[in-house]
Model the fold of this input.
Amino acid sequence: MLSYRHAFHAGNHADVLKHLILIQIAYYMGEKPAPFWVIDTHAGAGRYALESEHAKKLGEYHDGIGRLWEASKLPGAVDDYLEIVKMLNPDGKLRHYPGSPWIAKNCLRADDRLRLYEMHSTDSKFLQECFKDAGRQVNITIGDGFTGLKALLPPPPRRALVLIDPSYETREDYSNVVKGLQEALKRFPTGTYAVWYPMLSKQESRKLPDRLKNLGAKDWLHATLEVRAPARDGFGMHGSGMFIINPPWTLEKTLHQCLPRVTELLAQGEGAKYTLESQTS
Done:
């Protein structure tokens, strides 16, 4: 338990999908004058050095952010994403990758707030170091994010984006996502919830989208990005998905405009594709 380190996977194709969507939601929420919170239940280390031993061991960023870094003719949403990654790489060389907390922080205005949870002892120290000068805008809790949601929801401004992306190392992770969302929606039904999940051959992964659809939310958007067909031996992650409850009304159109190009650039073989499905009240 708690053996997962995102540093091995930072900047891969799954991060591209997750962070592109995170930015678009945060920017949309920032268009209204009222403040909002971003709550990250599994925050990780905050940012990652792509030249570290962890990142170089698998080198997954080469087939993720690395393919977009110097690409041309990119849709606006992809440019938004790259502009934030470039903040960590001001000399133009791709050496660092921002995690979800760092990205969220750079989408916030002065009155908005960031609430972070991380259980891993090493990553939580890195997270605290990452935001040591952030002041009251950022609050970090070393502990379980699902437990933390019970105390935070509904947030004082009654506007929030909750990002949920556990490691999915165990079956319990899948069940905890569903249970955590059930409880969160009871406390704060108008919040925006963004759930990331890996596309794997295992049954728990394949069933999760339907379990999320059955939670009863009236408005949702489900986006997937597969970079290759599933392996015949069933091994490995061939794609990932984002399930958003109460998404911005603009998000589906934005993803229709950018995911074809993203899929083209990140494809690793036959079977690369994206899907979008939604339900509105």
